[in-house]
Specification:
56 residues, mainly alpha
């Protein structure tokens, strides 16, 4: 779901606002969104987020 959400937002930005992002920025936006979504679940253990990212 995270990847589709990021791609959807980038597509809308490109189509409706004539903005485009390089691939590395899209990847970074995906990681930032993932950390934001996980922050409410792992609020007391931020290391768990890093562990999840490392296991991907």
């Amino acid at each position: 779901m995270l990847f589709w959400w990021t791609i959807w937002k980038e597509r809308n930005s490109s189509n409706f606002h004539n903005k485009s992002c390089p691939l590395h920025k899209i990847k970074m936006n995906c990681i930032i969104t993932f950390c934001y979504w996980c922050s409410s679940e792992y609020i007391d253990d931020p290391v768990a987020i890093v562990d999840i990212l490392g296991s991907l």
